[in-house]
Amino acid sequence: MGSDGQNWYLDLTYDQWTPLSVSGPRPAARYKHAAATVDGKLYIIGGSRNGRYLSDIQVFDLKSLSWSIIKLNSGVLPATSGHNMIKWENKLLFLAGHSKDVSDTVTVRFIDLQSYECGVIETFGKLPVARGGQSVTIFGSKLIMFGGEDRNRFLLNDVNVLDLETMTWSTVETTQTSPAPRFDHTAALHADRYLLILGGCSHSVFFNDIHVLDLETMEWSRPQLQGDLVSPRAGHAGVTLGDNWYIVGGGDNRSGVPETLVLNMSKLVVSVLATVKGRDPLASEGLSVSSALLDGEKFLVAFGGYNGKYNNEVYVMRPKPRDVLHPKILQSPAAEAAAASVRAAYALTKPEKLDLSEREDSNFKEVHVDNTQQKLSAEISALGLQKKALESSLADVQAENANLKAKIEEVNSTHADLSKELQSVQGQLISERSTCAKLEAQIAELQKMLGSMQSIEEEVQALRKEKSELERDMERAASVQKQGSGGAWKWITG
């Protein structure tokens, strides 16, 4: 699409990837780079192309749709691939990755977005072994790094945390079954508590599993996903918007994954959001996807990747706002307050043994009756509140049920249409099979005829040969007869 206006993104169709028409030169195509968006600009650092690591810093302006190159005022970035980049304060931090750097541990570098100065940040604590293909997720003022592959191609599944305020590394001890060692997976943070790990690969296996680490208990679990199937993949990219985790691309070294998935992290339900062609840049390994805030609305921005060729296209998607989860019954503030009132009223009206024979004072009896009426009034009032809360919750559930019913009817309608189409295709298939059977019978008959023709051809050749020999014999006989006749004539005429 073109750049006719500065607000071009407001014309995008929801949930569809759109390639951008870029003005001016583009960066070299690549994959396994690092990407981040800041103030409407997409920053791309490093990556790999034809086995060569890159070190350039490219910036794509989402307003003007043009690329530019950052020239550092100080410091040097080593050529790196398979690294991660996180925005922290006014800096871009990028760490780990494969390079020609001889460091045995993970190096953390920075680029100051104001001064364009670059350097290495000194870190402390238990520094993790150098690696590439790991995931790095920001959690408050901490970075959580999982897995990857070290320089000796040893696969990892450790969890390391970097405190950005003290720049101190620590290794996390987890319980339950950890994910199998892997690299080129993707990770996301949900509800400021749960770290989700999806996919990735070992040296021989591609994964489609999901693992969840509870960051409060440091306990791993492996829940089952619902909805659409997730095919095994590595080198895919992911970004979260609220409860939704958008997952793009990846592959298994044979083909790229054409589906863009959205995973609702609260419900653990997967849906296919969009599908591209097999050789599309979005069906690539080692691409990046980021979220960009443009005029208060969030967009997805994808770049690069490899699917038989290296890519440098920029794609954007305008995600449609997703449904917000309905609160469970008796978990809304009004319902909870009603329940509390009922509990309080019940506590006031617990059955007690009343011995009126010992209390002959009529005034006391009157007061006791009034008190009982007050208690009953409180109970009725509390029940009224509960009723209203339940009616409100019931209305929400009925609305959700109506929505689900409409979706079921739509699915049933689609199923009916597909069944009709299937029956039509089956009828066509039966007809085609009948035609094929007839053709096979004709072919068999023709083959028999062809065999007969070969036999006839041999007989014809034999007859031709006999004819040729007979003609030669007749010619010889005629010649001899002619010679004999001439001799007699000569003798007579003497």
TrEMBL record:
Keywords, sorted A to Z: Coiled coil, Kelch repeat, Repeat
Pfam annotation, one family: Kelch_KLHDC2_KLHL20_DRC7
Highest taxon, organism lineage: Eukaryota
InterPro entries with a match to the protein in the record: ACBP4-6_C (IPR056819), Kelch-typ_b-propeller (IPR015915), Kelch_1 (IPR006652)
Residues of the Acyl-CoA-binding domain: 378-477
Coiled-coil annotated spans: 387-483
Alphabetized PANTHER family for the sequence: ACYL-COA-BINDING DOMAIN-CONTAINING PROTEIN 5 (PTHR46093), OS02G0822800 PROTEIN (PTHR46093:SF5)
Name of the molecule in the record: Acyl-CoA-binding domain-containing protein 4
